[in-house]
Amino acid sequence: MKERGEPVVIKVEDLTTQSLIKFTRLQWWVFVVVNIVFLIAGQAAAVLLGRFYYDQGGNSKWLATLVQTAAFPILCVPLFLFPSHREPSSSSSSPSFLTLVSVYFFLGVLLAGDNMLYSVGLLYLSASTYSLICASQLAFNSVFSYFINSQKFTSLILNSVVILSLSAALIAVNDDSEGPSGLSKSKYMIGFITTFAASAIYSLLLCLMQLSFQKVLKKETFAVVLEMQIYTSLVATCIAVIGLFASGEWRTLQGEMDGFQKGRVSYVMTLVWTAVTWQVCSVGVVGLIFVVSSLFSNVISTLSLAVTPIASVIIFHDSMNGVKIIAMLLAFWGFASYIYQNYLDDSKARRALSDMNETHNDPPGQ
Ligand SMILES: Nc1nc2[nH]cnc2c(=O)[nH]1
């Protein structure tokens, strides 16, 4: 027995990473719910702040890329509170330093690429077109996780993926917000292609993170989630800083701050809070990959696409209409479908475990 409560090893079909983790049932559900809240709240706030930055006169793609990872040092505080503890028994299978560096470096490069493409898409496309293309990431994730993570597709999971994609598409088609004015056709095309590529890279990144947790890191504590986020963000931040200086965009930042419509303090605050909210979101993203799967993490990202317009209704007093309500109900249906699958998998795992324990406790010969 390792920690508070009764530890349970889960090794069943869809909860693939569960074979690595020891949690009591309550701990597992609390962990899932907390990470869902982090992802949805963090992503909704970060996307709205990112759009605010562009709307108020911000124009630097590299700065928008940088703020998606630059606040990673704040994660050192929870890392200090939940230190990584290694089991002596598993130390023989610990990855070498070189393996760890290679994994974090490769994932960090993918993260930087996704962040850059995502920032370009947000700059060049209207919110509606943007969300519509982002909805494709669930389809990409389904394909990648089938091949990379051997994800099993039950009817509940398929239902969830299809319904959530429809919900995000409905939100997008309904959105009548204008794209950035005076945008040339070529810039629109660039925005379209970069957002599509970002969706593919993001999905690949989530699947490879799941694979790394399962095959390389093999640790059982929350610290591994923070370490994954910190090291990949460190690499992505270095790339974004190099991009900011190599592209010469850094020279425009002073003018951008002076010309920001809401003022200089608002400019700095927008960037600081965008950076913080992306970290909150990322802990949720990586936490859900660790404890459930990359596909589930992406399902919650897509759910957040449907929730963001609702946040706009509350914060920016956007109008609410029937289509948004239907899209939201669809999103919750898709979400509930996946959660129910998790519940079934969890129950099955617990049953299998108690059967196994009974067999082990039976006296020999019985
Ligand atoms: N492409 C992409 N990048 C992200 N970075 C954080 N969230 C997302 C997302 O939903 N899609």
UniProtKB/TrEMBL annotation:
Keywords on record: Membrane, Transmembrane, Transmembrane helix, Transport
GO CC annotation, single: membrane
UniProt-listed InterPro entries: PUP_plant
Compartments reported by the entry: Membrane
GO molecular function: purine nucleobase transmembrane transporter activity; purine nucleoside transmembrane transporter activity
Assigned protein family: Belongs to the purine permeases (TC 2.A.7.14) family.
Protein name (database record): Probable purine permease
Species whose genome carries this gene: Acer yangbiense
